[in-house]
């Protein structure tokens, strides 16, 4: 089904309406666990669902549901998105982050791609399906979480109150469809006391970012600095880790220091092969990123991000790392991998819908990042970003290409129809 110009205008105006809320997470107030703005946004989103003639439910301000009743009570299709955003400072934007300005075929506002735009497109898609007389077999539930960006408490709370839908997708990542997501491990390695020839070592901001600047201060006051290129740890090969060159130099200066030797010879390798932790399977292989170097209480601490293949469990991977590391390891944020069978009805229906409607012949994706779908059973990520589309999420002047908004709304409509009929 195609969207006509009048419908498209209405779609753009409702995306603007939902994106007008500055719905970043804020301190709780009564009845609004993530603050007033996100709560107002949730109430407005549910009101929009009512205007379209659907039943709605507010799950205690943590999440909301818009329900399109199907004929089979036991089957349901979930569409999981989020209404919270990361903060947007108007001073850093050329276009106001909450006014929905349109220029050169783009609609600018925080949330237009992540994730209000695609979530509203899914709501609008089920409105058009209902208006066309379509009656689903599965009950369709649009589930709007209110805390995706700061801990996923919205959907976690939802799952304590509700049974998850039979199958779900989340419009919060990339097309064509992501059926596998690697596991994630963040941990610290304590590489021991600094040698006396080095006063300080530092570099990096977060485990999951490739270090773009690394610095060491030698005992005689000499400053060594190496430059790299930042990138997300899930795609570490697109960056250049500044610590590698620095650690080689330091290893030459202090060849006897075991910690620096370990980092220079084993950890400075994206594949993990030099370390001996290079897990792989037929879908993907491990990646390793040395994200942060710091001296804490005289000890050199390395913070590392590892993305591991879906056929390994978190516990297996922890054992492998411990067995190959002659220093203390402290695990921090960790996430199991996600795998939904590529031949399943869910993945195949989403993939074939995308390929047919866009005239392409792409395969389901395996990614190193984690999406919202890890929170919900039987869920995969599906759009809204098209392959090779410029990414603006979490950046100033986040925007949606209006032609793409129309295309992804049509794709969602067809996919929802096929998954729920
Ligand atoms: Zn998101």
Please supply descriptive tags for the structure shown above.
421 residues; alpha/beta; Aminopeptidase; Alpha-Beta Plaits; 2 domains; six-stranded mixed sheet; four-stranded antiparallel sheet; 29% helix; elongated; binds zinc ion
What kind of sheet is the major sheet?
6 strands, mixed
Distance between the termini: 15 Å
Low-confidence regions: none
**CATH third-tier fold name of the largest domain:** Aminopeptidase
What are the bound molecules? zinc ion
Counted up, domains total 2
Number of helices: 9
Mean pLDDT: 96
Overall CATH class of the largest domain: Alpha Beta
- Classify the beta-strand content into a percent band: 25-35%
Q: How much helical structure, as a percent, in the residues?
A: 25-40%
Radius of gyration: 24 Å
Strand order of the largest sheet: 1-2-6-3-7-19
Strand-pairing-aware structural class? alpha/beta
* Element order: H for helix, E for strand: HHEEEEEHEHEEEEEEEHHEEHEEHEEEEH
Architecture of the largest domain, CATH level 2? 3-Layer(aba) Sandwich
Shape: elongated
Q: What is the H level of CATH, i.e. the homologous superfamily of the largest domain?
A: Zn peptidases
- Number of DSSP-assigned strands: 21
